[in-house]
Structures are given as structure tokens and as C-alpha cells.
Amino acid sequence: AVGALQGARRGLAVSYGAHFVGRIDVVEGISCGVRTLGDPGLALHVLARLEGEDEPRAIGQLVSLGRDPVTREVRMRWFARVALDPLGTAPPRRAWLYTGSGQPGVPRGLLIGEVELPGSRGEHELRVRQEAEVRELREFWMWRSDTDLARELAGGPGA
């Protein structure tokens, strides 16, 4: 178990290897709760690497709508401000989603899952496929910032 005594803080990312699981939501002395991708309301800044392209694109924020009870895919709301296709008429494209930058406690580049991204602007519901479900995992990693680690090594406040 990991809690405040081990350095857990609200908002820190939790992963298994390079796969994003969720963010710490509730912290107690020796335990914490994690809001996972399957929990409605989890919001993330996201990068997408589209099939056939080398560089990822920042696509904005996705918000979890929960996990589909039948397919187990994560349903996520995405408002595309810019069309992936200049004409907005291309069919959806296969893409891999990763955590983006700009959210404290969440490192850039953790794999979220695979999706078919629509090419048009506007609001979309995405279906994100993941390699494994949180309930099947036995071990997680908690991500801490370099500042937190330096403070701990120096024995400063919050260590």
C-alpha cells in the first residue's frame, strides 16, 4: 500500500510500466485511491500518433465517460477544435493516444490506448482500447516529479 507517508499526492499519475492507469484522487496516511481511465470525469491532455505519421499531434483534452460494460473499451469525449483532415471528410484514422504535457504530476508519453480518430471538427465520443484492465493488474507505479525526489533526498519538507 502507498499513501501520504510514502509520498503519494493527489493528482500524481499511476502506471503499469509505460501504460497510463489513472491519477491519485484520495490520499490517506498509508493508502490512496486512484481515479482510473474507466472512471467518468477523468480528464487528460492527450497526444495522438496517427498511423503512418512519425510525430505525435497534440489533440487537446479528453474526458472519460466510463467503461463500456460489454466491450470494456473506455468511452471518452473529445472536442476536436481542428480537423485532422483539412476537408473534414476523411474516414477515421487509427491512432495511439499518449499523455500530453501541461498537467502537474502526469508525465508526457504514457500510453493510454488505441483508437479510431474521426477526421472532422466537433464533439466526438471515442472508444479507447487498452492492453489490460486495471482490475487485472497487481502492481502499479506512482510518478513523482524531480522536485519531489530532490526534496526527499535532501530531507526537506514533505520528505
The share of residues in extended strands comes to 35-45%
Determine the mean pLDDT: 86
The counted number of beta strands is 10
Radius of gyration: 17 Å
Q: Number of domains in the coordinates?
A: 1
- Span from first to last CA? 18 Å
Characteristic key phrases:
159 residues, mainly beta, six-stranded antiparallel beta sheet, four-stranded antiparallel beta sheet, 1 helix, 42% strand
Written overview of the protein:
The protein has 1 helix and 10 strands. With 159 residues, it is mostly beta strands. The chain has one domain. The strands form 2 sheets. Strands 8-7-4-5-6-9 form a 6-stranded antiparallel β-sheet, with no helix packed on it. The radius of gyration is 17 Å and the shape is elongated. The mean pLDDT is 86.
